[in-house]
Amino acid sequence: MRVVSVICCIALLFMTFTSPANERMKSAQKLLYQQVSLLALVENSDKFNEYKQLLFKSSLSVEQLIIIESDIAQFWFQRQIPIRSEELTQTKDPFVRAMAIEPQLAGYLELQNRIRHLQWLAEQDWWQPIELDHLVRPNQMDAIVPVVLRRLWLLGDAKVAVTESTRLSPAIVDAIKRFQGRHGLKADGIIGPETLKWLNVSPKKRASILAKNFVNRAEFMAQRGDRFLVINVPAFEMELFNNGKVELVSRVIVGKPYRPTPLLSSSISNVVINPSWRVPKKILYNDLLPQVRKDGNYIAERNFDVYDRNNNLVVRTPEQWRDLAKGPFPFRFVQRPGSNNTLGRYKFYFPNEFSVYLHDTSDPRLFQRSNRALSSGCIRVENVEGLANWMAANLVKDKQTWVDRHADRNRTQWFALNSTLDVHLVYWTAWIDDSNQVQYRNDIYQMQAGS
Length: 451
Hints:
Elements: H1 2-16, H2 21-43, H3 46-57, H4 62-78, H5 94-100, H6 108-123, H7 145-154, H8 170-182, H9 193-199, H10 203-222, E1 227-232, E2 237-242, E3 245-255, E4 264-273, E5 277-278, H11 281-294, H12 298-301, E6 304-307, E7 313-314, H13 318-324, E8 332-335, E9 346-349, E10 358-359, E11 373-375, E12 379-381, H14 384-394, H15 399-405, E13 413-426, E14 430-432, E15 438-440
Parallel strand pairs: 1-13, 3-11, 10-12
Antiparallel strand pairs: 1-2, 2-3, 3-12, 4-9, 4-13, 5-8, 6-7, 6-8, 9-10, 14-15
């Protein structure tokens, strides 16, 4: 009812300062035009592109408006995204109806503003490719600096549009760092290939990427429960939601492009302290055996036990392991728990056909990299202690044993949970953050190449 009241109040104020029916119709068409412009980007459909043309050029009849309104509302209903007021979609006032079918989404108005700005930029002839075959570092002089500054200003990262100097000054460096941060790049203020690649992304493509990802994320969030874990793969980020609020955030490491982390939904059913690591065949053959062929001591130094097909422990000298690794290898590796175990201190297990899970790591330095597509498919969590402590406080049944087992680094212990925790591995390359800044990320698996 509050939403209905707000819309009615706005409508009454609008009526006070405008002339009657024809002005209401024009205002309604402007609102509908903004919506179908967004939906045309999301669906790339002939229908919404046709509606754009009609709403921009023509004075439409009531019947035509109602058809457009119905299709807009249906778009949101199909995605289980609520509109502002179903009740007011039946009113006679076209402006109120147009307001009523807007989605009830946080950040929607900011999204519309950004889309309008990008579409305006797309209409200008300003986005010619910037070419550069070298790095430009802070305080260096280069003819490209004024061109880069203007583009940063157009995208909202620089406060001024022009400079009389070709020096990469501290103010411009700060703008570049803001731009790099919004694109998941290392914020070093250097104009290099990755920064240039994003500066050259056209406004039209930016608008398409943002619109599609915003709506996909909204559709996902509209269908979630109160408590869940979400890993946004191209953002290299994990968020824990509880009662509609983010309780925990962490950087993560995900799969390399040729060993991608799969997109799936499951539920964490167990937590393991001091896990052992059963090495998957692909990792064994591609990563470990090449190391053994170089140095047979690799197995003992990394605390691996080797088993044959009958699950018997196999013991060989380093020289024998080195020779065996050169031919057929009918053995499997299991790494014992300990400080150098690849999985680290914790493993969070959830059923899936890809044998991936969340875990700790023995090499936390990798979390400092901007591109963290580094694993063989599993997800490594930087704030693994925070996640483990939250699980212990909220879901682990045997809390006393949990405390006791932390004293022993080499003993594996599985813990059952009072209830499972839903986990979702998703793929969003753009969103609007809590500071109303548009964030973009590289399409690391080339899943949105057509955007």
